[in-house]
Amino acid sequence: MLYTVKEVSSLSGVTIKALHYYHKIGLLPPREISDAGYRLCGAEELKRLQHILFYRELDFSLEKEKRWTSATCSEDSKTRNNGTTR
After folding, report:
1. Which of 9, 70, 74, 78 is deepest in the core (most CB within 10 A)?
2. Backbone φ, ψ for residue 35 (5° rounding)
3. 17 vs 77, residue with greater confidence
């Protein structure tokens, strides 16, 4: 299932403006952009947003969050693609 930025904002409590900014800086790119220009997010993006919010609570800078979430999400993808679980 894909969610619009408005729906992600409602689910997460993160403002639409913040979600657009995270996309702009490459921290949270959408799964796809619709023909109408809507940013659409799926389960992977919601999981990544959860990681971002976790690191925000720890007062990580956005640049540091970008490095950590990239590494964490890459590891999760590798684990899933290998058919193993943690």
Report:
1. 9
2. -60, -30
3. 17
